[in-house]
Design brief:
Number of strands: 5
Distance between the termini: 45 Å
Strand content: 25-35%
Number of helices: 3
Structural class: alpha+beta
Mean pLDDT: 88
Low-confidence stretches: 1-8
Helix content: 25-40%
Length: 124
Amino acid sequence: MIVSGTERHDAEPPLLLFDDDDWLDVYDSVSRMLDHLEYPAIDEVVFVADANGRAVHLSVAGEEVVIEGVAASPQLNELRERVETFFDRWTDGAPPKRSDDPREYVQSVVSRYSAVPMRSKKRK
């Protein structure tokens, strides 16, 4: 089922969006994320997770980016790997500590994301 940002869906903010450069963007609402995304930039999105660590599947309907569906269970291992890659590649800080509680982990990612300076490229 395809839903737009104004219709009811299961994705719960905050939303963590990862692109093909391992960059992370954090959105505090579904509508802000969908408003920010546009075709063809959506092709660069490789993974989106909601507050429960579940994968959010996006697609394009006409000229609008929409949520196609939300996974039934958390993808915590993939989320942790992507978070750790982002922090290693794009920040000078350590990623948040791993947690087995998806909601707790997503909140720690959001807090850490807000507190750590970003850099433009990996230093060698």
